[in-house]
Design brief:
76% of the residues lie in helices and 0% in strands. By secondary structure, it is mostly helical.
Length: 54
């Protein structure tokens, strides 16, 4: 449970960082959305490891 909580906090920090980069126009928004999608996919696998899509 602690490992899952730590991962969820890490995912949240990554999303916040990407939002900041996009807001400051440091990175192309398409790249931000692509990475954001990967983070969401990773988060969904942590939340429901039995429902692996790959």
């Amino acid at each position: 449970m602690e490992q899952r909580r730590a991962l969820m906090q890490a995912f949240d920090a990554e999303r916040t960082y990407l939002y900041d980069l996009a807001k400051r126009h440091v990175v192309n928004s398409e790249v931000v959305y692509e990475i954001y999608s990967e983070i969401l996919l990773s988060e969904s696998l942590v939340l429901d490891p039995q429902n692996q899509m790959i």
